[in-house]
Design goal:
Elements lengths: L5 H15 L14 E4 L3 E6 L4 H9 L5 E12 L11 E12 L15 E5 L2 E2 L16 E5 L5 E2 L1 H6 L6 E5 L5 E2 L12 E5 L19 E3 L21 E3 L21 E3 L5 E2 L14 E3 L2 E3 L19
Parallel strand pairs: 2-3, 3-4, 4-5, 4-6, 5-7, 7-9, 8-10, 9-11, 11-12, 12-13, 13-14, 14-16, 15-17
Antiparallel strand pairs: 1-2
Length: 312
């Protein structure tokens, strides 16, 4: 007998699960202390939860329903029980102002349909155990705000779901991106690492070539751009480097990056001399930033500087 590929089996299981899902919300008393609301989509909001068993009970009584978004807010508990998701399909999971020992008690195999995970001002006391995210095969967006992720390296790249398309780390105390950290994510289209402590970037954090469209490294501590940093990124359209300590941007950093539309360098001590003349060879690029020096150009918008101003 011919066996079906594992991916086909997972797809059929997901379709069956969705087809059997109940429409709308369970009875209000069944999901207390949470609240379910439905407009065109179904949302479950839970606040002030301090016991994992409360969540497990709510989800048991929600069996066969589908929640487009589940929000857990202003809560403190040990973990999210992995098995509470077994009878309920969840598409997005949002945690706001939550304290946990760790995100899940063990890897949540039943969350294979989750496409968005957002953690905002959420502390995991044992740190980020990326292995817990490995079963999230459908995850496309991972967004972490105001937590502690001091570095991203091998542990992240080996365990984070490979179908990720959008990745955000904001105000996460991130200081280091290790070589190869984003190379194993072929669908990654947007990376945003803002309001952090990055002092250095290097080209080998991403594959060569890289086909993503958006990079943001705003509000970091970058002072130099490597000569090859954004080379061979043919689809890159938006680059955000606002509010760093960058004085010069080498032309060689953009070889093979022909579709750039937005170069955002506000809040940097940009030296507007002959080394920056190359920017005017790309009139299609929207440029935002101001000259710090020389004195005669101090405070002038880059888009208002003429080619003859760029002298050494």
């Amino acid at each position: 007998m011919k066996s079906f590929p594992a991916t086909v089996v997972l797809l059929l299981f997901g379709l069956l699960k969705a087809a059997l899902a109940e429409w709308g919300c369970p009875e209000p008393e069944d999901v207390l202390p949470c609240e379910c609301t439905m407009n065109t989509l179904t949302y479950l909001e839970c606040r002030h939860v301090d016991d994992p068993e409360v969540l497990r009970t709510v989800f048991q009584k929600s069996a066969n329903y589908e929640y487009n978004e589940v929000h857990l807010e202003y809560s403190s508990l040990q973990y999210l029980p992995h098995d509470m998701f077994e009878a309920v399909q969840v598409n997005e999971l949002h945690l706001l102002n939550v304290t946990l020992n760790q995100l899940f008690d063990s890897p949540p195999e039943a969350l294979d349909q989750l496409n968005t995970l957002l953690l905002k001002n959420t502390r995991t006391l044992r740190g980020n155990i990326w292995e817990l995210l490995k079963p999230l095969k459908s995850l496309e967006s991972l967004m972490i705000y105001t937590d502690t992720v001091k570095k991203l390296g091998k542990d992240f790249s080996e365990n984070a779901p490979k179908g990720l398309q959008r990745l955000t780390f904001e105000d996460t105390q991130t200081k280091k991106l290790e070589p190869g950290v984003f190379k194993e994510f072929p669908n990654l289209n947007m990376i945003s690492i803002n309001a952090n402590k990055l002092e250095h970037l290097q080209r080998d954090i991403l594959p060569v070539p890289w086909y993503g469209k958006t990079l943001h490294f705003n509000h970091n501590k970058l002072s130099e751009i490597p000569d090859d940093m954004f080379t061979q990124m043919p689809n890159l359209t938006t680059l955000g480097l606002n509010f760093n300590q960058i004085a010069a941007i080498p032309e060689s950093a953009f070889y093979g990056t022909d579709n750039l539309e937005n170069l955002l360098i506000d809040g940097n001590p940009i030296k507007c001399d002959c080394r920056l003349r190359w920017i005017y060879l790309y009139p299609q690029v929207y440029l935002r930033g101001k000259c710090e020096s020389p004195k005669k150009l101090h405070g002038k918008e880059l888009r208002d500087v003429t080619l003859s101003d760029f002298v050494c």
